Description:
Helix content: under 10%
Largest sheet: 15 strands, mixed
Strand content: over 45%
Number of strands: 15
Number of helices: 0
Structural class: mainly beta
Order of helices and strands: EEEEEEEEEEEEEEE
Radius of gyration: 16 Å
Amino acid sequence: DAHICGVDVDNVKISSTSGSVRVEPDTQTRAENIAVTTVSGHATVSACADTIAVTTVSGGQFISCDAHKADINVVSGKVHAEGACDEWEVSSVSGEVELLCTVAPTKKVQISSVHGDVRLALPGEIRGFVAEATGALGCEIINEFGPNRYGTCALPIRMETMHGKLLITRL
Length: 171
C-alpha cells in the first residue's frame, strides 16, 4: 500500500501493481497534476489540483476533489467521486458509478458504465444542462430535473450504460 498525506507538492504520480493507494496532499495546496494508477487495489484521492487522473484495473475508487478536470477510470470496481470540478470524465467497465457534484460543473460531464448503475447528483441551484442519456433496451432512465434540457445553461452531460440504471438526481 502507498499513502501520501499532508505534503505540499505540485505533481504527484503513483503507480502500483498490487496494493491500495491513498493520496491526501496538504489541504492548503493546489497541485498541478495528480495521477494515480493501480492494477490491483483501491484508490483514494482527496485533493485540490488542476488535473486529477485515477485509473484502476481491479479495485474501487473514492475521489473527493476540487479540480479543473478529473479523469477517473476503473475496469472492475465501484467508483464514488464527489466535489467541485469544471470537467468530469468518469467511466467503469464493470461496476457502479456515482458522481456527486457539490458545485455545478462549467465545461462537461461524461459518465459511463458498461455493467452497472450510473448516478449523477447535481446541486439544486444548477442553472441548467443538456443531457444525453443512452442505455440498452430495458435500461431505466430517471431525471429528477425533468426533461433532458433543463434551465438556461447548456452544460453538456453525457451518460451511458449497457446494463443498469441512469439517474440524474438533486444533491
